[in-house]
Amino acid sequence: MKWLSLLPLTGLAHASLRFGCSTVSLQRLDPLVEPGRIPSAHVHQIVGGNAFNASMEGDIGEKGSCTTCAYTEDFSNYWTAVMYFRHENGSYKRVPQYPNAQLGTEGQDAPNINSGMTIYYTQKDFYDNGEDYITAFQPGFRMTVGSPTVDTLEKAQAQPGLRYTCLQTILTRGYETPDFPKEPCPAGIMAIYHFPACWDGKNLDSPDHQSHMYSTTKGAFQEAGPCPASHPVRVPQLAYETMWNTTAFEDMWPKDGSQPFVWSYNDDKGFGTHADYVFGWKGDSLQRAMNSSCFFHDCGSPGVQGILKTQTVEEMNKCSVQNTVEEDTEGWLTELPGQKMGMRFTA
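The chain above was modelled as a monomer; its predicted structure follows.
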């Protein structure tokens, strides 16, 4: 199945955000799972505000001076592991990312976005607001989804919000798998992360960064199921999409036909895919958007103001974080950064 367009049908009311964020940093830091540890166990790619650092506490929305996201009021940080290609000779090369479709001005493509990811905040689905009041995340809120410790297909299948799409074109949607595609993908691999949308209404975090949330996620941008009494507060359905340009390695595919891609924590199946989120929207900006009826780029797009303030792609790309960890993550590497040969880290 393909999306011929990401634009809404006319005549319907929506309140959904879809926007691009360029890369703000790529390094071994993980302020949620490994706060204060420099370096962390594996490499992450991070987008959002430039307050990102090894130890992030409090309201980061008030600590940054710029953001790589299209919306200038969003100083949140969003991050995932990094994908590498493993050559037959045992060396590794980081897989480049590329921007998703229709992230530019008024829904045009923006191929000049510096890597990064696509961020979604939806209420019910792409076609209906539903009847629930959507409560925006609060200052200091953070959460994770998935875990690098997931190491079987059965466990991965039990997480419907964490999937992969083998892209035939940039607009391919609909067929998702819980593990890495096993054959070359003509337009690369898209990794998809759907977070839980039910909050306990009390805790901004929890020791495992997940227990304060409850997942009724069905994946594929379907409406999440009802929230239980233990986690009664419906929050936005947050999702990420990352586009990995695996086509750069199509001429180096292993002769035995084996799948050659691996996450930066040494996962060659893709079962342990995971993502982290720290809320950092300024003031009531996210709640204002959730209370509106805008949809995707009608809420504002790069350089075009809507209910949310925006910036141009050039301004997005200028924002960055100076690396705390200085190491080679780009060249052909003898081993994954932080990962000893043959060892799979669980942090």
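DSSP finds three helices and 16 strands in the chain.
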